[in-house]
Design brief:
Length: 136
């Protein structure tokens, strides 16, 4: 039974590592297994900072749109969408943790998930912002 559980744990770990660039990047940089967590912490901090900047820029754009149209819908819709994204990210990445728990690496998989989804959302927001070079 223990062999089966170990095999399933390895299978899930492999599945969660495949396509999980943050974890792979930190694994490559790390001297030891203990270095992976701090590497992921640093990546998450950077991703969160960039995300906060993209959220602020999007809110500013939505506020301008609201002023132009006289409707609060763009601001309210974005705020709701952002809350739902944060909820989804928390739940989805908790699921990554639960797949591997109580094994080694569950926390790292959760952090890597948060980095990946935060980067994705940040890029999505940046792609929707007006191009500064097209403004007069």
């Amino acid at each position: 039974m223990r062999t089966v559980l170990f095999a399933v744990s390895l299978l899930l770990a492999g599945a969660s590592l495949a396509g999980n660039k943050p974890l792979m990047e930190c694994d490559e940089k790390a001297q030891t297994r203990l270095d992976v967590g701090p590497c992921l912490d640093h990546m998450l901090e950077q991703a969160q900072q960039e995300h906060s900047e993209a959220v602020a820029a999007t809110k500013k754009t939505m506020a301008v749109l609201s002023d132009v149209t006289g409707r609060l819908d763009p601001v309210l819709s974005f705020d709701g969408a952002q809350r739902e994204f944060e909820n989804y990210r928390a739940l989805n990445c908790a699921w990554y943790f639960e797949q591997l728990s109580p094994g080694t690496g569950a926390g790292d998989a959760q952090k890597a998930c948060r980095i990946k989804l935060t980067r994705y959302r940040t890029q999505e927001l940046k792609d929707l912002l007006p191009d500064p070079s097209s403004e007069d």
